[in-house]
Each structure stands twice: as C-alpha cells, then as structure tokens.
Design goal:
Length: 231
C-alpha cells in the first residue's frame, strides 16, 4: 500500500524509491485528499505502475477542478476506484489490516483536508495512524464515532499545523512516536511550534522529514525500529 505521493516534482523520487525496494506491485494506492502536495506525485507512480501492477485506488471522494486532480483521476479511472468510508476494513494479510476512520459517507465537511482518508493500521500488536491533512473538525468527528484510534505511531495531521492534533485527539491516540512529513523551509511555517510543544509535553518522540530526512519504520508485529536517512 502506498499512501499519497507528494507534489508532482516528487513523483520520480517516489518511483525510484519503490523500484530500489524491488516493489513491482502496489495492491492499494491511497490518495488521502485531492490537494496537489499529496496526489501530484501519484501521477508518475500510476504512469509507471499500470492497472495490473497498481489495480486499486482509494480516495476520499472529494472532487476538485484542478489540473493535477484531473490528471490523477484520469489515471485512477483506468483502475478500480473506491471511495473510503468510515468503518471499512482493508485486510492486507493475516496479520495486517487497516480500518478507515474518515471520511463519512456522505462527506461531512466542505474542506478537502477534513475529508482526508484517515487509516489505522494494525500489524499484529503494532499500530499506526495515518491522518492525511485531517484537522480538528474531523478529529472530533472520529472521536465521536467511537472507533478505536489508539496507535503507537502517529503520522501527524496536516504537516504539524496548529489546526490539527487537538489535545483531545492526542490523548485518545496516546502515541509513543510522532512522525511529521513536512518540507524544509516551507512557506506555511509547518510544523507549528504549538504542535511541537503539545507533542513534547505529551512525552512523544518526534521525527520530522525536514530535519531527519527519510524516516523508515519496520516492524515484525511485536517490536518496531525507526531509522532515518539523510540524502
């Protein structure tokens, strides 16, 4: 499974990384929401991995008129395109499954960010939470649903923006590790200091792509290791 692909400029980097790992098939490609910094790189991925080697696309079902989205959806429509719906379970193998925590059907919000696909992945006893650009409104909706959000490793929402990772959500997830995917020197000032302080005060170990480079988490379902690689 591949979740998001960065900007269009990142597409070649993503493809090379997958190929260097020897990955010839991607069972599921997830586009959390239609913003260009999440789906742009997936265009190159879907050009390199055809409908046989990347057969299923999962998105949030939020349409836009941007050229990047139109280019992406044209490739997605050559495959099986499914809209994620809260409560769905995706089984990857005997010990790996994912639960869709967001979005609802019909879509609950007018903002693409809060309609992001949010996935909780369980690898035997090790759990991950992938949040896309989900913000405080969708976090509150997820908590209200009563679905299990507790996760050892949290991919922090919206690049560490102050508009995400509410204290209530953080307390419910109760992570040990937080990973922030964020561009170095980005114009938004992500991650915001408020989010860093919140995570630090909660005792979470923080990894950031702008400072740490590539962040690789491996697990056997009982233990996990995290290593970082700078270019």
């Amino acid at each position: 499974m591949l979740i998001d692909g960065g900007t269009e400029n990142a597409g070649n980097t993503v493809v090379k990384y997958l190929q260097d790992l020897g990955i010839t098939r991607i069972d599921f490609v997830v586009a959390t929401h239609p913003h260009a910094d999440h789906i742009g790189g997936l265009i190159k991925v879907l050009e390199e991995y055809n409908s046989t080697s990347a057969p299923v696309i999962i998105d949030c079902g939020f349409d836009t008129t941007s050229k990047v989205y139109r280019d992406f959806i044209a490739l997605a429509n050559e495959r099986t395109l499914e809209h994620a719906v809260r409560g769905q379970v995706i089984i990857l193998d005997t010990y790996v499954n994912l639960t869709v925590l967001n979005p609802q059907d019909p879509l609950e919000f007018n903002d693409p960010n809060d309609n992001s696909v949010v996935l909780r992945m369980q690898v035997y006893n090790v759990t991950f939470l992938f949040t896309g650009d989900s913000e405080s409104k969708s976090e509150a909706s997820i908590l209200k649903s009563g679905l299990n959000v507790t996760s050892i490793i949290l991919k922090v929402g919206h690049h560490g923006s102050r508009t995400a990772t509410s204290l209530e959500f953080l307390e419910a997830v109760n992570p040990r590790v937080a990973i922030i995917s964020v561009g170095l020197g980005n114009s938004y000032g992500h991650p915001h200091q408020e989010t860093i302080e919140k995570l630090t005060n909660f005792g979470v170990i923080i990894y950031r792509t702008d400072l740490d480079g590539t962040i690789i988490v491996t697990t056997d379902g009982i233990h996990y290791t995290i290593i970082t690689e700078r270019p």
